[in-house]
């Protein structure tokens, strides 16, 4: 099939970017969305143009690298998928597809569709861990954990750190990302000890880095590729309130 | 004298590690902060090492090519991580785990290293649980286990089908904690281009900043590579698109000997290739073989829908050929058996290059809910990619390039033949012999990083406590930087017409056809000449667009493909030299009358360690003879 693409091109962090039109013939429904971009890049290189830079690695929905804003939605259409899991079966001959990078003050563009998500790293460094030195751990089965709690912690731990929640949020809030980590660690006895300090420090860092506040819109949950639930934000709020005392 | 000294401690197998730990030299805590350690690669092995070394007080400079260590391809390990906890009371023990790994590796791994890996496995689980890894639990609240290919006990810990992701995120959290503490400095978005050797010791690296294009110098008292495997040499593999062998190859060019390069595991349960555009193959966890049954139709080229092929017209060929292990035979055996059926014309799907993995019986017996609990996310992943619902009809699977048992040769201390240059995790050759058992990779990576390297590197650094920070302005750094710059410049200058990827695909095809699941003298010879031609064509026809001084993903790929040409040659050379079949290395000339792999122990019971002699010169083979004092060498039978 033949599709029209409007793709954000930007030379470097401080240059001005804009949408550029491309027509691409010979697209197959069997391609994944990123294979379609690979194909576009092949044609661009063969024409002597520079390919579109975009981020990807595992291409199986597990690493969190891929991060495209497709037709106004992070990771495009489809429930609970990453960009790399999106297939061209979602599109028809003649469709126009607009592809942009994540948009958020805290995620500046590096080139074309690649953004800098190091703000997430900084939030994680502020407290997204359990202070357990290697060698100091007790026997793994010494603390039984109710299966329901372990399962719930697992669901929160599935967060990829992709940033779609920020890209989806009109306030560019990082609350879903932060709450997933706080929830996971608060649910486990090993991590619960540090909950208050963790919540306080991670939220302070998030505010400092220019992410917006959460006003309960819920767009993050709707676009999260891993189905991270907004209920974690409530748990975070409770931990945060508790940390104030 | 051979350049290989494995430095295996004396004494009984079970005491070696304990006595080694007691005898290695220690570095005083006050001195550790004056020592810099460069760590390249921050997957499970690298992140675990960074957190341990940081906690001990060393200064760690950690590098990765992704934007964050959390993205490393350890995330994709699905099925689990082994440990000898014996929680199931099913007779497991450190010795049994050791024994299974040695046997699974077809008696081509070093006993002492494998035993140590088994020993630290239990502590690794403790550490990961303490770090917040949400492993699966049963209703009692205790940790759950499952069994995995090639063994008869349940020793695999798992977190749904995302065990690697969860283990990596656990180790990553330890790493970022050390970043916050100021002990680890992260250098993300960097490719390592060269190792810098000064007075015979590894003292630094040259990197390319993937954002600015800058070629940078970094120094340290020691360099650790945790850069994973090179399975992407086949182009299509289960690895991440960015996984590559260039850091290991750079070390090899500077004198680190390469062990068993041709030992590559072809994973039996990947999704089959769907079309020519495909950039990678997606793995379906081996854990699926616990409940799924593998079959092909008994009739050749049977085009009926699988659900309408009656039970007695199905050939459950693994159960037929290997009644004792059935669908749980090790990976190499399962892969070859699939290839055998497809080559003989029984394969299914449009291309005839796939077999069925069927859950119909399991769902009938255990209920859909139970199967969903165990494999829900894998089924979902399969459905998303293929549009087929595996709850209703069998999956189609085919083998794919996966894991490299080969890698940098290391001694018992995990040090390569370049003093001060260490290799951990998949990047070394040490633990899996000629074939890795399922759930062994996470075990080795975490063990190497958390508990082994931090001990052994101290012994090396004890000599360096009076060595001040290594300056980066010396002639060795300048020369290494120049080498890197020259090669980058040469790549940009070719200015041909063909994309880097087109060369990579062609190389991958050559390797898959001739140095994949089955290898022969003639095929390998042909591959060597094809690779040489392809390399020549590359240097006159490749097009690397754009500029060097900013993001240039084509340049990154081109650098990696150049190293793959060299590595591919060495893999073929190694495969040619080893005229026996063992583990994943199947020489067509060496098989039993029933078509099983035929080892030749009295000739090939060694690690093939290849020394680079400079561009244009032939590699030199060194042999590390393997001694088996604690296991009886047997024909590896799963019948
Ligand atoms: S919460 Fe969801 S959308 Fe946000 S970073 Fe995690 S996985 Fe991505
Ligand atoms: S590329 Fe890894 S999640 Fe998409």
Mean pLDDT of chain A, rounded to whole units? 95
Number of strands of chain B: 20
Please state the CA-atom Rg of chain B, rounded to the nearest Å. 24 Å
Strand arrangement across the biggest beta sheet of chain A: 2-1-5-3-4
How do the strands of the widest beta sheet of chain B line up side by side?
Answer: 6-2-1-10-18
What do we call the CATH topology of the largest domain in chain A?
Fumarate Reductase Iron-sulfur Protein, Chain B, domain 2
CATH architecture of the largest domain in chain A: Orthogonal Bundle
Biggest sheet overview of chain A: 5 strands, mixed
What's the helix-strand series of chain A? EEHEEEEEHHHHHHHH
Poorly predicted parts of chain A: none
Give the overall average pLDDT of chain B.
96
Low-confidence stretches of chain B: none
CATH homologous superfamily of the largest domain in chain A?
A: Alpha-helical ferredoxin
Which compounds are bound in this model? iron/sulfur cluster, FE2/S2 (inorganic) cluster
Largest interface: A-B, 76 and 80 residues
| Main structural class of chain A | alpha+beta
Q: What portion of residues of chain A belong to β-strands? A: 5-15%
- Cα distance, first to last residue of chain A? 61 Å
The appropriate CATH architecture of the domain at 475-614 in chain B is Up-down Bundle
């Amino acid at each position: 099939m033949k599709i029209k693409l409007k793709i954000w091109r930007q030379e470097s962090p401080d240059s001005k970017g804009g949408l550029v039109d491309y027509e691409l013939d010979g697209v197959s429904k069997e391609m994944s969305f990123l294979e379609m971009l690979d194909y576009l890049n092949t044609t661009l290189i063969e024409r002597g143009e520079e390919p579109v830079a975009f981020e990807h690695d595992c291409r199986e929905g597990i690493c969190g690298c891929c991060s495209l804003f497709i037709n106004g939605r992070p990771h495009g259409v489809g429930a609970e998928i990453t960009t790399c899991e999106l297939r061209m079966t979602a599109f028809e001959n003649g469709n126009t597809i607009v592809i942009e990078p994540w948009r958020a003050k805290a995620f500046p563009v590096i080139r074309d569709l690649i953004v800098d998500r190091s703000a997430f790293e900084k939030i994680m460094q502020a407290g997204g861990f359990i202070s357990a030195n290697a060698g100091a751990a007790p026997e793994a089965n010494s603390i039984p954990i109710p299966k329901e709690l372990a399962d719930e912690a697992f669901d929160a731990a599935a967060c990829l750190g992709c940033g779609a929640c920020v890209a989806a949020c009109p306030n560019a809030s990082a609350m879903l990302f932060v709450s997933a980590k706080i929830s996971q660690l608060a649910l486990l006895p090993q991590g619960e000890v540090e909950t208050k300090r963790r919540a306080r420090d991670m939220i302070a860092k998030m505010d400092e880095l220019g992410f917006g506040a959460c006003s309960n819109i819920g767009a993050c949950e709707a676009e999260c590729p891993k189905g991270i639930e907004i209920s974690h934000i409530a748990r975070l709020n409770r931990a945060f309130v508790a940390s104030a005392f | 004298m051979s350049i290989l000294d494995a430095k295996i401690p004396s004494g009984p197998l079970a005491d070696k590690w304990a006595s080694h730990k007691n005898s290695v030299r220690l570095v005083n805590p006050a001195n550790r902060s004056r020592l810099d350690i460069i760590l390249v690669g921050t997957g499970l092995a690298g992140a675990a090492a960074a957190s341990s070394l940081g906690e001990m007080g060393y200064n760690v400079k950690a590098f990765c090519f992704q934007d964050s260590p959390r993205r490393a391809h350890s995330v994709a390990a699905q099925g689990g991580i082994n440990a000898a906890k014996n929680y199931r009371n099913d007779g497991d023990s450190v010795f049994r785990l050791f024994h299974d790994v040695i046997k699974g590796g077809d008696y081509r791994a070093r006993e002492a290293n494998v035993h140590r890996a088994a020993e630290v496995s239990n502590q690794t689980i403790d550490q990961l649980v303490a770090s917040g890894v949400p492993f699966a639990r049963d209703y009692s609240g205790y940790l759950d286990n499952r069994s995995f290919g090639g063994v008869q006990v349940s020793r695999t810990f798992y977190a749904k089908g995302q065990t690697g992701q969860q283990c990596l995120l656990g180790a990553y959290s330890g790493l970022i904690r050390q970043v916050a503490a100021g002990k680890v400095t992260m250098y993300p978005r960097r490719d390592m281009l060269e190792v810098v050797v000064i007075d015979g010791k590894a003292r630094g690296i040259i990197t390319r900043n993937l954002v600015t294009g800058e070629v940078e110098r970094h120094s340290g008292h020691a360099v650790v590579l945790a850069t994973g495997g090179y399975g992407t040499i086949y182009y299509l593999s289960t690895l991440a698109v960015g996984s590559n062998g260039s850091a290991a190859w750079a070390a090899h060019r500077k004198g680190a000997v390469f062990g068993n390069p041709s030992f590559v595991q072809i994973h039996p349960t990947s999704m089959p290739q769907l079309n020519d555009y495909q950039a990678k193959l997606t793995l379906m966890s081996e854990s699926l073989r616990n409940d799924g049954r593998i079959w092909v139709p008994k009739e050749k080229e049977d085009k009926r829908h699988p659900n309408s092929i009656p039970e007695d017209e199905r050939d459950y060929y693994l159960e037929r050929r290997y009644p004792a292990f059935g669908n749980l035979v090790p990976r190499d055996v399962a892969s070859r058996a699939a290839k055998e059926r497809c080559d003989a014309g029984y394969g299914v799907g449009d291309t005839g290059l796939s077999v069925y993995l069927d859950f119909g019986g399991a769902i009938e017996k255990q209920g859909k809910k139970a199967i969903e609990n165990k494999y829900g996310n894998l089924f979902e992943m399969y459905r998303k990619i293929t549009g087929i619902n595996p709850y209703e009809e069998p999956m189609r699977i085919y083998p794919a390039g996966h894991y490299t048992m080969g890698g940098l040769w290391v001694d018992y201390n995990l040090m390569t033949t370049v003093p001060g240059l260490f290799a951990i995790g998949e990047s070394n050759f040490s633990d899996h012999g000629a074939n890795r058992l399922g759930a062994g990779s996470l075990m080795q990576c975490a063990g190497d990083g958390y508990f082994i390297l931090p001990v052994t590197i101290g012994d090396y650094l004890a000599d360096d406590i009076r060595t001040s920070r290594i300056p980066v302005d010396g002639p060795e750094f300048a020369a290494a930087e120049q080498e890197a710059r020259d090669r980058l410049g040469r790549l940009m200058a070719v200015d041909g017409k063909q994309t880097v990827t087109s060369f990579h695909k062609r190389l991958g095809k050559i390797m898959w056809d001739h140095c994949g699941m089955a290898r022969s003298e003639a095929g390998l010879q042909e591959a060597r000449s094809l690779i040489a031609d392809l390399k020549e064509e590359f240097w006159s026809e490749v097009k690397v667009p754009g500029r060097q001084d900013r993001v240039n993903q084509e340049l990154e790929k081109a650098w990696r493909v150049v190293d793959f040409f060299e590595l591919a040659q060495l893999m073929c050379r190694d495969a040619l030299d080893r005229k026996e079949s063992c583990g994943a290395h199947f020489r067509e000339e060496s098989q039993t009358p029933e078509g099983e792999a035929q080892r030749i122990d009295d000739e090939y019971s060694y690690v093939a360690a290849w020394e680079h002699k400079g561009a244009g010169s032939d590699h030199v083979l060194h042999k590390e003879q393997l001694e088996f004092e604690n296991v009886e060498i047997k024909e590896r039978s799963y019948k």
